[in-house]
Amino acid sequence: MVDTDAGSVDRLALAVLVQYRMATTEQMHRVIAPGVRAEQTRRRLAKLCEEGLIDRITLPRAGRMRVWFPSLYGVQVASEWSELRDGRSPKLLSDPTAARLRAGHTLAVTETGLAFLHDARRRGDVCRPLDWIPEVYHPLGGGEAVTPDALLYYRRAREGGGGGAMLRAFVEVDRATMGPERLAAKLTAYARLHQYIPAPIPGTQRRVGLGEVEEDWRRRYPIFPRLLFVLDGTGPAGIDNRISALHATIQIPAVAGFLRQVPVLATPMAALRHHGPTAPIWHPIHDTDQKTGWMHNHHP
Q: Residue 2 belongs to a domain with what CATH number?
Protein backbone atom coordinates (compact mmCIF):
# COMPACT_ATOMS: atom_id res chain seq x y z
CA MET A 1 0.00 0.00 0.00
CA VAL A 2 1.31 3.45 -0.89
CA ASP A 3 1.58 5.91 1.94
CA THR A 4 -0.35 8.97 0.74
CA ASP A 5 0.92 11.27 3.48
CA ALA A 6 3.07 13.81 1.64
CA GLY A 7 5.51 14.30 4.53
CA SER A 8 6.08 10.58 4.93
CA VAL A 9 6.72 10.07 1.22
CA ASP A 10 9.06 13.09 1.10
CA ARG A 11 10.96 11.64 4.05
CA LEU A 12 11.20 8.24 2.33
CA ALA A 13 12.38 9.85 -0.91
CA LEU A 14 15.20 11.71 0.82
CA ALA A 15 16.15 8.69 2.93
CA VAL A 16 16.34 6.50 -0.18
CA LEU A 17 18.56 8.98 -2.03
CA VAL A 18 20.88 9.36 0.97
CA GLN A 19 21.18 5.58 1.32
CA TYR A 20 21.28 4.65 -2.39
CA ARG A 21 23.48 7.69 -3.29
CA MET A 22 21.73 8.20 -6.64
CA ALA A 23 18.64 7.21 -8.66
CA THR A 24 16.86 8.20 -11.84
CA THR A 25 13.36 9.68 -11.78
CA GLU A 26 11.96 6.36 -13.00
CA GLN A 27 13.84 4.40 -10.33
CA MET A 28 12.60 6.73 -7.60
CA HIS A 29 9.05 6.30 -8.82
CA ARG A 30 9.36 2.51 -8.62
CA VAL A 31 10.78 2.75 -5.08
CA ILE A 32 8.60 5.31 -3.34
CA ALA A 33 5.27 5.44 -5.20
CA PRO A 34 4.69 2.72 -7.82
CA GLY A 35 0.92 2.93 -7.30
CA VAL A 36 0.51 6.57 -8.36
CA ARG A 37 1.11 8.49 -11.56
CA ALA A 38 4.76 9.10 -12.40
CA GLU A 39 4.08 12.83 -12.71
CA GLN A 40 3.45 12.98 -8.95
CA THR A 41 6.91 11.56 -8.30
CA ARG A 42 8.49 14.08 -10.67
CA ARG A 43 6.76 16.95 -8.86
CA ARG A 44 7.82 15.60 -5.47
CA LEU A 45 11.46 15.37 -6.51
CA ALA A 46 11.36 18.87 -8.00
CA LYS A 47 9.96 20.17 -4.70
CA LEU A 48 12.76 18.53 -2.68
CA CYS A 49 15.26 20.03 -5.11
CA GLU A 50 13.77 23.51 -4.65
CA GLU A 51 14.11 23.06 -0.89
CA GLY A 52 17.82 22.31 -1.29
CA LEU A 53 17.56 18.74 0.00
CA ILE A 54 18.50 17.02 -3.27
CA ASP A 55 20.25 17.94 -6.52
CA ARG A 56 20.16 16.58 -10.07
CA ILE A 57 22.16 16.00 -13.21
CA THR A 58 21.00 15.14 -16.72
CA LEU A 59 22.78 12.35 -18.54
CA PRO A 60 22.96 12.50 -22.37
CA ARG A 61 21.36 9.12 -22.91
CA ALA A 62 17.91 7.54 -23.07
CA GLY A 63 16.28 10.83 -23.97
CA ARG A 64 18.29 12.94 -21.49
CA MET A 65 17.91 10.92 -18.31
CA ARG A 66 17.45 12.94 -15.11
CA VAL A 67 19.39 11.59 -12.13
CA TRP A 68 18.90 12.70 -8.50
CA PHE A 69 21.31 12.66 -5.56
CA PRO A 70 21.22 14.20 -2.05
CA SER A 71 22.75 17.58 -1.31
CA LEU A 72 25.04 18.16 1.66
CA TYR A 73 22.07 19.74 3.45
CA GLY A 74 19.90 16.73 2.63
CA VAL A 75 22.51 14.34 4.02
CA GLN A 76 22.78 16.41 7.20
CA VAL A 77 19.00 16.39 7.67
CA ALA A 78 18.51 12.66 6.98
CA SER A 79 21.51 11.56 9.05
CA GLU A 80 19.55 12.52 12.16
CA TRP A 81 16.75 10.07 11.36
CA SER A 82 16.59 6.80 13.27
CA GLU A 83 16.06 4.68 10.13
CA LEU A 84 19.48 5.79 8.84
CA ARG A 85 21.41 5.58 12.11
CA ASP A 86 23.27 2.32 11.57
CA GLY A 87 26.79 3.43 12.42
CA ARG A 88 27.68 4.41 8.84
CA SER A 89 28.60 7.86 7.66
CA PRO A 90 26.62 8.57 4.46
CA LYS A 91 28.86 9.20 1.48
CA LEU A 92 28.17 12.41 -0.40
CA LEU A 93 28.47 12.85 -4.14
CA SER A 94 29.84 16.31 -3.57
CA ASP A 95 28.80 17.98 -6.82
CA PRO A 96 27.28 17.27 -10.26
CA THR A 97 30.69 16.34 -11.71
CA ALA A 98 31.29 13.72 -9.00
CA ALA A 99 27.76 12.41 -9.50
CA ARG A 100 28.26 12.11 -13.26
CA LEU A 101 31.48 10.13 -12.83
CA ARG A 102 29.81 7.67 -10.43
CA ALA A 103 26.50 7.43 -12.29
CA GLY A 104 27.01 4.24 -14.30
CA HIS A 105 27.91 1.93 -11.45
CA THR A 106 25.72 3.57 -8.81
CA LEU A 107 22.61 3.43 -11.00
CA ALA A 108 23.34 -0.24 -11.80
CA VAL A 109 23.48 -1.00 -8.07
CA THR A 110 20.19 0.85 -7.56
CA GLU A 111 18.61 -1.09 -10.42
CA THR A 112 19.75 -4.36 -8.86
CA GLY A 113 18.15 -3.40 -5.54
CA LEU A 114 14.90 -2.55 -7.31
CA ALA A 115 14.75 -6.05 -8.79
CA PHE A 116 14.66 -7.54 -5.28
CA LEU A 117 12.25 -4.88 -4.00
CA HIS A 118 9.80 -5.44 -6.86
CA ASP A 119 10.00 -9.22 -6.52
CA ALA A 120 9.26 -9.03 -2.78
CA ARG A 121 6.17 -6.90 -3.45
CA ARG A 122 4.99 -9.36 -6.07
CA ARG A 123 5.49 -12.38 -3.81
CA GLY A 124 4.19 -10.83 -0.59
CA ASP A 125 7.63 -11.03 1.03
CA VAL A 126 9.14 -8.21 3.09
CA CYS A 127 11.90 -6.13 1.51
CA ARG A 128 11.44 -2.44 2.12
CA PRO A 129 13.33 0.33 0.30
CA LEU A 130 15.79 0.84 3.16
CA ASP A 131 16.52 -2.90 3.38
CA TRP A 132 18.95 -2.34 0.49
CA ILE A 133 22.08 -0.80 2.03
CA PRO A 134 24.99 0.11 -0.27
CA GLU A 135 28.65 0.03 0.76
CA VAL A 136 28.69 -1.43 4.27
CA TYR A 137 32.27 -1.50 5.51
CA HIS A 138 33.66 -4.78 6.93
CA PRO A 139 37.28 -4.54 8.19
CA LEU A 140 39.85 -7.24 7.51
CA GLY A 141 42.65 -5.75 9.61
CA GLY A 142 45.78 -4.00 8.45
CA GLY A 143 43.76 -1.27 6.78
CA GLU A 144 42.05 -3.72 4.41
CA ALA A 145 38.30 -4.20 4.20
CA VAL A 146 35.47 -5.81 2.27
CA THR A 147 32.81 -3.32 1.19
CA PRO A 148 30.06 -4.99 -0.83
CA ASP A 149 28.17 -2.92 -3.36
CA ALA A 150 25.11 -3.60 -1.23
CA LEU A 151 23.83 -5.56 1.74
CA LEU A 152 20.32 -6.96 1.29
CA TYR A 153 17.83 -7.82 4.04
CA TYR A 154 14.90 -9.91 2.82
CA ARG A 155 12.22 -11.71 4.85
CA ARG A 156 10.25 -14.49 3.20
CA ALA A 157 6.52 -14.68 3.84
CA ARG A 158 5.35 -17.63 5.89
CA GLU A 159 2.28 -19.53 4.74
CA GLY A 160 -0.59 -19.07 7.18
CA GLY A 161 0.76 -15.76 8.52
CA GLY A 162 3.58 -14.90 10.89
CA GLY A 163 7.18 -14.03 10.12
CA GLY A 164 9.18 -16.12 7.67
CA ALA A 165 12.89 -16.73 7.32
CA MET A 166 15.21 -13.72 7.21
CA LEU A 167 17.70 -13.86 4.34
CA ARG A 168 20.75 -11.65 4.03
CA ALA A 169 23.01 -11.25 1.02
CA PHE A 170 26.13 -9.39 0.06
CA VAL A 171 25.68 -8.19 -3.53
CA GLU A 172 28.45 -7.32 -5.97
CA VAL A 173 27.45 -5.60 -9.23
CA ASP A 174 30.18 -6.01 -11.84
CA ARG A 175 30.02 -3.92 -15.03
CA ALA A 176 33.12 -5.47 -16.64
CA THR A 177 35.31 -2.50 -15.70
CA MET A 178 37.90 -4.88 -14.24
CA GLY A 179 39.35 -8.11 -15.56
CA PRO A 180 37.90 -11.51 -14.61
CA GLU A 181 40.84 -12.24 -12.30
CA ARG A 182 40.26 -9.06 -10.29
CA LEU A 183 36.58 -9.95 -10.02
CA ALA A 184 37.51 -13.40 -8.75
CA ALA A 185 39.80 -11.80 -6.16
CA LYS A 186 36.69 -10.36 -4.54
CA LEU A 187 35.55 -13.89 -3.76
CA THR A 188 38.90 -14.54 -2.11
CA ALA A 189 38.40 -11.42 0.03
CA TYR A 190 34.99 -12.66 1.19
CA ALA A 191 36.55 -15.98 2.14
CA ARG A 192 39.05 -14.03 4.26
CA LEU A 193 36.23 -12.05 5.88
CA HIS A 194 34.49 -15.31 6.77
CA GLN A 195 37.57 -16.39 8.74
CA TYR A 196 38.73 -13.00 10.02
CA ILE A 197 39.21 -12.72 13.78
CA PRO A 198 40.38 -9.29 14.92
CA ALA A 199 43.47 -9.04 17.07
CA PRO A 200 42.29 -9.11 20.69
CA ILE A 201 42.43 -5.95 22.75
CA PRO A 202 43.34 -6.80 26.37
CA GLY A 203 40.25 -6.83 28.54
CA THR A 204 37.79 -6.56 25.64
CA GLN A 205 37.93 -9.98 23.95
CA ARG A 206 34.61 -11.49 22.92
CA ARG A 207 34.96 -15.17 23.78
CA VAL A 208 32.66 -18.00 22.79
CA GLY A 209 32.63 -21.75 23.25
CA LEU A 210 35.83 -22.99 24.81
CA GLY A 211 37.40 -19.58 25.11
CA GLU A 212 37.91 -18.96 21.39
CA VAL A 213 37.59 -15.45 20.03
CA GLU A 214 34.79 -15.30 17.45
CA GLU A 215 34.94 -14.09 13.86
CA ASP A 216 34.24 -10.40 13.46
CA TRP A 217 31.18 -10.84 11.19
CA ARG A 218 29.29 -12.62 13.98
CA ARG A 219 28.83 -9.28 15.72
CA ARG A 220 26.45 -8.29 12.89
CA TYR A 221 24.92 -11.44 11.46
CA PRO A 222 23.62 -14.72 12.98
CA ILE A 223 24.88 -16.51 9.85
CA PHE A 224 27.21 -15.24 7.14
CA PRO A 225 25.19 -13.60 4.32
CA ARG A 226 25.09 -15.40 1.00
CA LEU A 227 27.10 -13.74 -1.77
CA LEU A 228 25.52 -12.74 -5.09
CA PHE A 229 27.39 -11.51 -8.17
CA VAL A 230 25.35 -9.61 -10.77
CA LEU A 231 27.29 -9.35 -14.05
CA ASP A 232 26.74 -6.66 -16.66
CA GLY A 233 28.61 -4.60 -19.25
CA THR A 234 29.59 -7.45 -21.56
CA GLY A 235 28.04 -10.03 -23.87
CA PRO A 236 27.28 -13.71 -23.16
CA ALA A 237 30.88 -14.82 -23.81
CA GLY A 238 32.19 -12.21 -21.38
CA ILE A 239 29.65 -13.27 -18.76
CA ASP A 240 30.74 -16.90 -19.17
CA ASN A 241 34.41 -15.91 -18.77
CA ARG A 242 33.66 -14.07 -15.55
CA ILE A 243 31.64 -16.93 -14.10
CA SER A 244 34.48 -19.31 -15.06
CA ALA A 245 37.00 -17.05 -13.28
CA LEU A 246 34.86 -17.14 -10.14
CA HIS A 247 34.55 -20.92 -10.40
CA ALA A 248 38.33 -21.31 -10.78
CA THR A 249 38.84 -19.97 -7.26
CA ILE A 250 37.65 -23.30 -5.84
CA GLN A 251 41.25 -24.43 -6.36
CA ILE A 252 42.20 -22.13 -3.45
CA PRO A 253 41.67 -24.15 -0.26
CA ALA A 254 40.28 -21.21 1.73
CA VAL A 255 37.75 -20.44 -1.00
CA ALA A 256 36.76 -24.09 -1.36
CA GLY A 257 36.03 -24.19 2.36
CA PHE A 258 34.07 -20.95 2.13
CA LEU A 259 31.92 -22.29 -0.71
CA ARG A 260 31.04 -25.35 1.37
CA GLN A 261 29.53 -23.09 4.02
CA VAL A 262 28.18 -20.01 2.19
CA PRO A 263 25.97 -19.95 -0.94
CA VAL A 264 27.75 -17.96 -3.68
CA LEU A 265 25.89 -17.38 -6.95
CA ALA A 266 26.20 -15.32 -10.13
CA THR A 267 23.75 -14.16 -12.80
CA PRO A 268 23.70 -11.75 -15.74
CA MET A 269 22.00 -8.42 -15.08
CA ALA A 270 19.85 -8.97 -18.17
CA ALA A 271 18.42 -12.18 -16.69
CA LEU A 272 17.77 -10.45 -13.36
CA ARG A 273 15.82 -7.67 -15.07
CA HIS A 274 13.88 -9.96 -17.38
CA HIS A 275 13.03 -12.85 -15.06
CA GLY A 276 13.43 -11.48 -11.52
CA PRO A 277 15.74 -12.77 -8.77
CA THR A 278 13.64 -15.75 -7.64
CA ALA A 279 13.70 -17.32 -11.11
CA PRO A 280 16.27 -20.10 -11.75
CA ILE A 281 18.82 -17.70 -13.25
CA TRP A 282 21.67 -18.06 -10.74
CA HIS A 283 24.79 -20.18 -11.28
CA PRO A 284 26.17 -21.62 -8.01
CA ILE A 285 29.89 -20.93 -8.18
CA HIS A 286 30.81 -24.39 -6.90
CA ASP A 287 28.87 -25.97 -9.81
CA THR A 288 28.27 -23.46 -12.60
CA ASP A 289 26.40 -25.97 -14.80
CA GLN A 290 23.43 -25.60 -12.47
CA LYS A 291 20.84 -22.81 -12.41
CA THR A 292 18.63 -22.07 -9.46
CA GLY A 293 16.89 -19.33 -7.48
CA TRP A 294 18.83 -17.13 -5.08
CA MET A 295 16.97 -18.12 -1.90
CA HIS A 296 17.96 -21.77 -1.71
CA ASN A 297 21.04 -23.15 -0.01
CA HIS A 298 23.51 -24.39 -2.60
CA HIS A 299 26.26 -26.33 -0.93
CA PRO A 300 28.11 -29.22 -2.55
A: 1.10.10.10
